[in-house]
Design goal:
Strand order of the largest sheet: 1-26-25-24-23
Radius of gyration: 20 Å
CATH topology: Methylamine Dehydrogenase, Chain H
Number of strands: 29
Structural class: mainly beta
Distance between the termini: 42 Å
Order of helices and strands: HEEEEEEEEEEEEEEEEEEEEEEEEEEEEE
């Protein structure tokens, strides 16, 4: 009988989860790409969004003015920028074209440095001032690089033990802690790993149920966030290694373990913390944006962004950011639309 009631509850939850799209119109929006974009990133100061377009050079947009400030391209072939990023002080921007990184001075738009590597670059994180880079490479390594001295400081690897593989696994996501002392990596071996950058020592490893596609440090320190594709997004204590909570966008009660149903799993593709570090916003490949309380992991709200074309489903949220006053959220999607949402 209990099993029957549990099954009924699951079916009701499934119906509710799939029936409510909660699509919202944004307060402001503009087209950052005519067709679509490979990647997007917001500056920490809330002034800019950098877009790697599929049919144009990379473009730095002024968010409030909704106009292009600079157009950046290293390769003669347009639409080759597939990874973009900013330093935490918002003074340095990076564009990646295959195996080449160009660092740009945001204030002037001038190139600061061009770095070429022997393999393609999959993901990138910049240090606070942009003087160090952490790169996930297609040769199954992550490289910590000193820009000023032009040398590799550490090489980080994910062995295949977690997935019973004899070879190292591809690294998909990287992050540098605000202090610059630690690194996070997430890979195809279904693990997220914490490293000490000074020595290259691995400090923690967290197993997931799928390939890890996103990693981030909590700005106040002490915690990290990691997420698996078509899996769960976790908030971990760095010191103890224990899980504080899982982000749940479903109505399933928090005191019950999540059932192994697809509707209770989702991929997180973008995150940002509010200026006061009390809130977290996540973006997803399913048109969805969610707002959370950092202290408890409780969901405040979730909504779906409008599609660019009604008959073209699937909108990947590539980047999200809070405004500097914490009263609004910005989102940049792969369908070429940047939007502003007032927090209600």
């Amino acid at each position: 009988m209990r099993r029957t009631y549990r099954l009924i509850f699951v079916l009701i939850a499934l119906l509710l989860a799939t029936a409510c799209s909660n699509e919202r119109e944004s307060d402001k929006q503009w087209e950052h790409s005519k067709l679509s974009s490979y990647a997007s990133a917001f500056s920490a100061n809330g002034k800019y969004v950098l877009v790697g377009d599929t049919d144009a050079p990379a473009r730095l947009w002024d968010i409030e003015k909704r106009e292009v400030v600079f157009t950046w391209q290293n390769n003669e072939e347009i639409g080759t920028t597939t990874v973009v990023g900013f330093s935490a002080d918002s003074k340095v921007a990076a564009t990646v074209e295959q195996d080449v990184i160009v660092l740009w001075e945001v204030a002037t738009g001038e190139p600061m440095m061009r770095l070429s590597f022997p393999v393609k670059i999959k993901a990138l994180a910049l240090s606070r001032h942009g003087d160090y880079l952490l790169m996930a490479l297609h040769n199954r390594t992550a490289v910590y690089f000193d820009v000023i001295s032009n040398r590799v400081l550490q090489i980080l690897e994910h062995d295949g033990k977690a997935v019973n593989s004899p070879i190292n696994q591809l690294i998909n996501a990287v992050a540098i802690s605000p202090s610059g002392k630690y690194a996070l990596t997430g890979g195809d071996d279904q693990t997220a790993r914490l490293w000490r950058l000074e020595t290259g020592e691995q400090l923690r490893s967290w197993k997931h149920e799928n390939q890890v596609n996103i990693v981030a440090f909590y700005p106040k320190g002490g915690y990290v966030l990691t997420g698996a594709g078509n899996g769960q997004t976790h908030f971990w204590n760095m010191k103890t290694g224990k899980e504080k909570y899982i982000l749940r966008d479903s109505i399933w009660p928090k005191d019950l373990p999540l059932p192994d149903f697809p509707t209770f799993k989702s991929t997180t593709s973008a995150i940002d913390f509010s200026p006061d570090n009390k809130y977290l916003v996540t973006g997803h490949p399913s048109q969805k944006i969610c707002l959370w309380k950092v202290l408890t992991g409780d969901k405040i709200d979730c909504w779906q962004v409008a599609r660019k074309k009604a008959l073209r489903p699937g909108v990947v949220i590539q980047a999200v950011a809070f405004s500097q006053d914490g009263k609004a959220i910005y989102s940049a999607a792969g369908n070429g639309i940047t939007q502003k949402w007032q927090i209600k």
